[in-house]
Design brief:
The structure holds two protein chains of two kinds.
Chain A: E1 2-9, H1 13-24, E2 30-33, E3 49-51, E4 60-61, H2 62-75, E5 79-82, E6 86-91, E7 95-100, E8 103-114, E9 118-120, E10 136-138, H3 139-147, E11 151-152, E12 156-160, H4 164-175, E13 179-184, H5 194-201, E14 208-209, E15 212-218, E16 225-230, E17 243-246, E18 249-252, E19 256-258, H6 261-265, E20 290-292, H7 303-324
Parallel strand pairs in A: 1-2, 1-8, 2-5, 8-20, 10-18, 12-13, 12-18, 13-14
Antiparallel strand pairs in A: 3-4, 6-7, 7-8, 9-19, 15-16, 16-17
Helix pairs in contact in A: 1-2, 1-7, 3-4, 4-5
Chain B: E1 2-9, H1 13-22, E2 29-32, E3 49-50, H2 61-80, E4 89-93, H3 96-112, E5 118-121, H4 122-128, E6 138-142, E7 146-147, H5 150-163, E8 167-169, E9 176-179, E10 184-187, E11 192-200, H6 206-213, E12 221-230, E13 241-243, E14 254-257, E15 263-266, E16 270-271, H7 282-295, E17 304-314, E18 320-323, E19 330-334, H8 340-357, H9 383-392, E20 399-401, E21 406-407, H10 408-416, H11 422-429, H12 442-453, E22 472-473
Parallel strand pairs in B: 1-2, 1-11, 2-8, 4-13, 11-19
Antiparallel strand pairs in B: 3-7, 4-6, 5-6, 9-10, 10-11, 12-15, 12-16, 12-17, 14-15, 18-19, 20-21
Classes of the chains: A alpha/beta, B alpha+beta.
The complex binds flavin-adenine dinucleotide (2 copies).
Residues 9-15, 33-36, 41-43, 46, 48, 50-51, 86-87, 115-117, 140, 143, 164-165, 168, 256, 259, 262, 294-296, 300, 302-303, 306 of chain A line the site of one flavin-adenine dinucleotide.
Chain lengths: 325, 477
Amino acid sequence: MTERDLIVVGGGPAGIAAAIAAAENGVKDILLLERDQYLGGILNQCIHTGFGIEYFKEVLTGPEYADRFVKKVRSIKEIEVSLKSFVVRLTPDKTLTYLRPGLMQVDKAKAIIMATGCRERTREMIHIPGTRPAGIFSAGLAQKLINIEGLLPGNEVVIVGSGDIGLIMARRFTLEGAKVKAVIEIQKKTRGLVRNVVQCLEDFDIPLYFNHKISRLYGKNRVEAVDIVEVDDDFNEKPGTKSRVTCDTVLISVGLISENELIEMAGVKLDRKTNSPVTNELNKTSIPGLFVCGNSFKVYDIVDSVTRDSIIAGKLAAEYIRSLK
Amino acid sequence: MKSYDVLIVGGGVVGAAILRELSHYKLRIALLEKEEELAFGVSKSNSGIIHPGTQNPAGSLKGRLCVQGNRLTRKITRELGVDFKEVGELIVAFNEDEVKKLLELKKEAETLGVPRIEIVNKTWLRKHEPNLNKDVIAALYAPTAGIVSPYRLVYDNAENACRNGAEIHTLSKVVNIKKTKKGFEVFTASDIFSARYLVNAAGLFADEISKMAGVDDFRIKPRKGEEFLLDKKKENLTNHLIFPLPTKVSKGILIIKTADGNPMIGPTAVDTEDKEDLATSDEGFRKVFSAAKKLVPSINENDIVAYFAGLRPAVGHDFIIRHEDKVPGFVNVAGIQSPGLTSAPAIALMVRNILKRNGLYFRRKFFFHAHRKKTMHLFAIPLEKTKKLIRKNHSYGDVVCRCEMVSSKEIRDAIHRGAKTMDGVKFRTRAQAGRCHGTFCTTRIMKMLAEENGKPLTAVTKKGPGSEIVKKDKTRD
Ligand SMILES: Cc1cc2nc3c(=O)[nH]c(=O)nc-3n(C[C@H](O)[C@H](O)[C@H](O)COP(=O)(O)OP(=O)(O)OC[C@H]3O[C@@H](n4cnc5c(N)ncnc54)[C@H](O)[C@@H]3O)c2cc1C
Ligand SMILES: Cc1cc2nc3c(=O)[nH]c(=O)nc-3n(C[C@H](O)[C@H](O)[C@H](O)COP(=O)(O)OP(=O)(O)OC[C@H]3O[C@@H](n4cnc5c(N)ncnc54)[C@H](O)[C@@H]3O)c2cc1C
């Protein structure tokens, strides 16, 4: 077992910003653990522009935004970066276990910052009845398939949910030559940015249906069609409004929830709905010296705010470590 | 034309159990399965319970085979290295009338030879099953009820049978059967197989196979069951399998423990016409949750991580397992609804005896490899052991599926052992079966399948031809 001053879990924008801020505030021995083979987190697959407007006052793509921080973190000698390092256990005494090809390591730290990001809500969580064929994707997975792997998931798409990721994927699919037949939103208005509705849907004549939901999904091997139905204010189906739309792909973009199974394992209480830690103070948990930042603390709209708040997490950890001496 | 002593149609738990049983003997045997992998029929969507034998009519064939199957499953899972957990079941009663029914069930079960059953009272229940509805006043406790992973049982039976010389042909849908002097000619789209004996274990389609062979006297009536899986975090929701009192058509909606830890609730029981109708419904969802909450009030809709439907291949109320004297050499194994998973090894023995009685000569192999090396799952072992494994083989430390903690080593092993599809990988390893449903690991698994099977990414499927994951590879054209 190795002893460290600070361990940061997650090498997305939150973890990177927190590690940098901690180093700048005097922490000398920092380990940054990232599960993937590169730093940058979810930004790597967000090749559209719209990042950095607040923080850098510039319009950047996701990878460009990430790159600025990755370069910086790499240049700070107090920060050791360990990639392909997957944390599997965390205990309340701030000991954690991670796996890496060829190695299982147990480390104890004075302070830990968790920046493990979030995951998408799934089709299962909104209970869409019907079959379970190929062709159902979360928006994030579709984004990864197209932007990182160069694979087109489908040709005729219905998107469930009008959050920003769904809207951006509507445009992406259209640019790739697929037909987006509809975006379905159960609420009265979009959860996404107005600029995205205009730039991603209206400019491409993609219909957006408010107060609608999918009431059934069809297809044995591959998605074949969905039933779309209007709902009232209590989300009950309105009789006589059902129609069938043929498609080979259904994209689920119905929100994000924090990824916090590790701190839960350590005994931190999580909110049942959002999966984020129950606390009144930014980045703090019920365990002194255990901090959470970025999308695992709460789901942010834009990455600029993630960076802003994660810098605070780095400072808090530095203060905490100082206070131990 | 390939020729065999015995051909089995259908690669579910029943076909696989028969294949392994027959592989003990010096026989040329093969199994034909229409899907790309085994266990893609009824055997993938059930409750995974190895029933003790309660809740079956005393004189029934399925009752007898269930009790015997429960016993045999212990031995076979040990040999095959499949986890079998004896968790026990409780059939609960809310009032005195229901307690009377429990006593009747107990008597029936004792006649069938179900071991160690007893009635337990409120105090016992408070202590051993604290989340149970406080209105339950007594329960029938059958400690021999167990749980297994149904698909792993199929895969491991099949793998062991092949090790012992059996053959399996997948993507081999039987479309026609001709009776010949010496036996049968069995046609698939691209092949003809000949065999002296033919065993029909085609699940939902057993009536169609039987008709092809010349016996057209029963119809399979599918009865749908919808089930809902809850988050692994709720593993300790209950300590036992919880049953309400059974109705005429089914065992009712249960609180199930599964082999991998997720609690499950269901199944419904609704007759349907379509043998491929695996859709879930809003009504099913409501029905299951209201019934389950009656048993365990703290169950919560937010904990659902997956759901599915399965079809019970019912013919009347009992199994049909018989040699068809009208078509010598043809054995029907049909109507294998619940408790078919439990009964499978007993059915296999019964089929062996039927074949013997009808002239097939059985000689034991000198060498039978009864044991199979247990498949390694990181999620099932303590971290100390993981540490050693990683040191021996680095890729155990390369975690691909983060929700279920599945390494690239386990996934490659599964592919080497025969997984050809995304679902095949999921059933064998649990990768993609967790909270995020494969959002993070799908692309890596696709690449491993493509690489190991020498196929392009566009040919990777969810569950066989027609279920390709992506439509186009832009980097290639
Ligand atoms: C699909 C998608 C599209 C988006 N589009 C936009 C947009 O257009 N504009 C915008 O401003 N914002 C966008 N966002 C939001 C923005 O990307 C996020 O706010 C930001 O990336 C969050 O940063 P994070 O570091 O908290 O999480 P992440 O970027 O998710 O980073 C978390 C990191 O932790 C690692 N990790 C997780 N668990 C472990 C573990 N156990 N051990 C080791 N490492 C672990 C992960 O591999 C990951 O690299 C989008 C988000 C998503 C999901
Ligand atoms: C909801 C539900 C819950 C259940 N719970 C339990 C339980 O807890 N415990 C228990 O003991 N039992 C349970 N059962 C019953 C159990 O699942 C079945 O009895 C068992 O899986 C049947 O296995 P099988 O091999 O006969 O059928 P299947 O698994 O369906 O196998 C038949 C195979 O034949 C193939 N096939 C069909 N036609 C052809 C053809 N023409 N050519 C080639 N191949 C063909 C199919 O593709 C299929 O793979 C449950 C069933 C359901 C539906």
